[in-house]
Amino acid sequence: MSDQGPAGAHSGPGMSERKAQHLSICLDGETYHVETSRTRLDEVHLVHQALPELNADDVDDSGEFLGQSIDMPVFISSMTGGSAGAYQVNKDLATVAGELGIPVGMGSIRILLRKPDVIDHFRLKRYAPNVPVFANIGGVQLPEVPHTELYRLLEELAVDAVAVHLNPGQELVQPEGDRNFAGIREAVATFTAASPVPVIVKETGFGVHPGEIARLQAAGVAAVDIAGAGGTNWNRVEAYRQDDDTVAAAAAEFDDWGISTALILAALGREQRGVFASGGIRSGTDVLKALALGADTVGMALPFVRHVSEGGVGAAVAFGRQVKYVIRTGMALMGCNRISDLRHAPLWLEEPLRRDAQALWRACR
Ligand SMILES: Cc1cc2nc3c(=O)[nH]c(=O)nc-3n(C[C@H](O)[C@H](O)[C@H](O)COP(=O)(O)O)c2cc1C
Question: Which of 39, 77, 121 to mutate to test the pocket of ligand 1 (most atoms within 8 A of CB)?
């Protein structure tokens, strides 16, 4: 890898600085190539209806997020927080979410355990009071941190839900990353049982396999966001921050690591419930395909943060409106009056994806 991380990207920075480095790597698409794999949504085909038998003006593209009504079944995935630049981005993302009427996540609140003074960075509800706002914490923190302290923060932030992120791939390449992943499954269950708000469990771009999704659902989590492979690869983001050439070169072997977003959805089947799709979702047609495959709602991280940083709130809102237009138009062209009709609309999968989905299901159930 020839790129060297951003200036000052050496091992051992503070958490705020690390977050700022992550953001600058993700935003500079010219220098850093953080999208390395495939969602395999290109192997999913929606079927055009020449006779849709509906009035396009009656199409209802409103969605639902953990029981709350939202203006379309799309959310802005958990991102940053904890540095001055990240605060501005977070405020902008929350404003975008409010304008579009969709949920918004925030980055990990772990930093608040060490730096309570940055709590304002995470008070996003005031910028988006009309939509669900969800906090975020690493699964790797749950066995160590007193849950009561986290519950107190969730209440103080007045969030509607919390996402627990799973990111072993990132941690193992991060110079200052965690390496002990034992006990997380049990800690997620304990945390969920007493949480004051619904708990979402999410990956961060390598996917969650069907057997693990079933275990998490049995543990009582409100939703699993699969965050499959095909979008931002956090192993690669960390590789750009690595000073150790061996680790950086080894990380490149994981460019195709993970379970593709479409593969997980296809393995679960269209009747699945309580599953959010994300990881490499980049367009309205990607959203339509994920919904047709059975996702409840669909998340995007990188597209929203890049639009906000390049063109401000207006550009990100315009992108969201385009996504909405495509969802509505696609629904009409598929003869679907409601979002829930999409999972019954005609659809076909190319043979490799169909075959691999069956194999994944058999291997990981
Ligand atoms: C700048 C940036 C910061 C992120 N920070 C977090 C985080 O703090 N917690 C988390 O769960 N996921 C975080 N993510 C991961 C996203 O939520 C998402 O799972 C991942 O980027 C895959 O989605 P994408 O392909 O649409 O980017 C971050 C993503 C980006 C781009």
Answer: 77
